[in-house]
What we know:
Elements: E1 14-20, E2 25-32, E3 38-46, H1 63-83, E4 90-94, H2 96-99, H3 104-114, E5 119-121, H4 124-136, E6 146-151, E7 156-162, E8 165-172, H5 176-182, H6 188-201, H7 204-211, E9 215-219, H8 220-233, H9 245-248, E10 253-255, E11 270-273, H10 278-291, H11 300-312, H12 315-340, H13 348-351, H14 354-366, H15 378-389, H16 397-408, H17 427-450, E12 468-471, H18 481-485, H19 490-503, E13 509-512
Parallel strand pairs: 1-4, 4-5, 6-9, 9-11, 12-13
Antiparallel strand pairs: 1-2, 2-3, 6-7, 7-8, 10-11
Helix pairs in contact: 4-10, 11-14, 12-14, 12-17, 14-16, 14-17, 15-16, 16-17, 17-19
Domain Ppx/GppA phosphatase C-terminal: 301-469
GO molecular function: pyrophosphatase activity
Keywords: Hydrolase
Amino acid sequence: MAITLPTSSTASSLFASIDLGTNSFKLLIVRADPSGKFFPIDHLKEPVVLGRDTVTTPYSISAQSQSRALEALQKFQTILNYHKVNRNRTRCVATAAVREAKNKREFADCIKEKIGMEVEVLAGEEEARLAYLGVLQFLPVYDKLALTVDIGGGSTEFVIGKEGKAIFGTSLKLGHVSLAQMFHIDKISEMREYIRSVMHESGLVQKVKEHGFEIAVGSSGTIRAIEKAVFHGYARDIVDKAVLVGECNRDWAFTRGELRNIFMMLGIEEMEVSEYALGEGVIAETLAKVYGGCVLNANARWRSVLRLAMRFNSKKRMISAAQCAGIAKEIFERIRKFNELGKNKVEFAASLNEKDLECLEAACLLHNIGFVTGKKGYHKQSYHIIMKIGHLHGYSAEEVQLIALLARHHRKKFPKSGHACFSEIPKEVQRRFRYLCAIIRICVALQQYQSLKSQEMDSSYSQEDSNLERSEVQDRKLPTITHLVDGRMPELSKELENFNTVFQQEFSVVVNSSTSERNH
């Protein structure tokens, strides 16, 4: 069987957002599909700190800050070029520090001239709306009247929305950078009084009372930092290497008591926390324009997988898992196409469907969450977390079990017929499990041992030419086919043998050498 192994997302499926914030600049690149699912494949955060220029009012962005900004954006442009992200699918937005600067137009023109990026300076209300759209991609609150609070470096955005529409939104100059510059650490009481005064005088408190809300959501790094501090307070009794029972029972939320009454004046009893915010909202709106408005209410099942993955994974592991999921999807679809051409000895397409593909992708995203307890036996911990946490909403018990078993068996010995794991699942699921297990194992092996960072996919179908070809671009020089022959990649060779056995088809790898440097 000849099939091109995908090395990365095709350019047409990639979207990017750039957030020029008061404290830092952030680049986010995601892989997306028309169903509304997207997850990160790369990200970078640069501490430009435009807020240094905002001590006095009015202010201008200094030459030094402009220099740091251009340096950061040049790095971003290099990464965008590396992934071949289309310019019309990249959106660059600026927030409070640029919005309030006297020379914001000159700053944007400079970026356009030096980097070639169009900068969209967001109004405060627009920033609030986009943060709300980002929240919708992470939490199942589309049908609820939601109050979203997004604390940034230069401002804090408040928005009340429902079903993707912002009913009320405002931006107040209450960012953590600006407040830190205004008040010394021993002036906390004065700062709190100032915050209460600004919120009352702006009419925010009255507006919130008028509209009401069913649920409160916090987003941005500041809110997440508060939540994580509370979160880890629930895990102090965890036994080393054990399943994180305390954390597993902990959802993305904290109560009024945990907030220390910070939001009492808005009547918030409990606040959900969104890992997504402005950057993801920008992505969501771009997707809505390309694929249709239904993206704003993306698949709830998939969101629950993302929440679980991001709860336990570091950003680096999350990106690795996302790359693995992308590879798995392409292999799944290409083998199915090969079967449709009548060239595969196993009736693969007849036994697997779109829900099986979704379970495979979910398992790829979750296979490494057990690392939170340490490397040893992490695949077993991944299984226990998936089975015990109960946060995969919308999945049947059978599907959750399939996802957990795939995560459990993505490494170590390939489960043979008669393995104990088969006693846990119905017979009709066992065959599907073997197919999916063979795919996830080869994907993980390729991602881990070859550091997949590539662009191009070319497919061909020839029963005689049994090669799985890869054309790859990555951080270092790639191994050639001789590296496979001389046994320096035993894990991949072993997984190829497993794959051949399951699919009853010869399957080999040709790795084409190429190089590309990426410095970040």
